[in-house]
Amino acid sequence: EIIKKLNFGREVYDIDFSPNGKYLAASISANEAVPDSLRIIDVENIEVLSAQARGNNRPGNLDYSPDGAKIIAPNMKNGAQILNSVTMDEIATLNGIHTSDVTCAKFSATGNYVLTGDENGKVQLWDADGEPSSVQIDVNEEIVGCDFSNLDAKFAISTITGNIYSYSLTGAQLQYIDLANNYEIEWSDDADILYILESESSPAIITLDGSTFETIH
Q1: What does the DSSP assignment read for 139-202?
Q2: pLDDT by residue (tens digit) across 168-197?
Q3: Does the predicted TM-score (pTM) go above 0.90?
Q4: Euclidean distance between CA atoms 108 and 113, whole angstroms
Q5: Worst-scoring range by mean pLDDT, 22-36, 37-51, 144-158?
Q6: Residue 118 and residue 149: Cα distance in Å, rounded?
């Protein structure tokens, strides 16, 4: 049953629960003049908190760090930003690598790494402080999903045409599959299983073996 509705008056791009379930972060369409496109909702009281920040004016995700202390989201400078999840103050900026809008930004399961992907197909691995590593991949089409495996052993990306790739943390390609149009991927928290949200005329969630990319169901 519906508990309460919150209307931000603009398109909602993404939402993400904090690890403890007490807060819900929302990314809405950004306004250049007003820094209010990244908002935090107190779940228990169902109220929007006053802390806010500016995200981007095109679709992209946001993500809590595993300890809930930080949030990452794309910015308007062809990069991403790491924010304090309580005050929404900027901790680090991940700029200077991407030359187009960042469309996916994720913390690893341990919080030791960050992954960003952009609309031109460039993927960059960063350390926890927001410094770029030597691992950079280019798949030449828009990134729509990205995530790390549960033990940070590898990461996966998905593209707008449905290509799914997995890589080691050294940048070596591990697996590949074409699953048509998809708009989100997520690795299981406790198993080597990759979930794919497919958004064709017959929407489905596809479960893949993370090591072989064979379909489980």
Answers
A1: -SS-EEEEEE-TTSSEEEEEETTSEEEEEETTS-EEEEEE-SSEEEEEE-SSSSEEEEEE-SSS
A2: 999 999 999 998 777 789 999 999 999 998
A3: yes
A4: 5
A5: 22-36
A6: 20
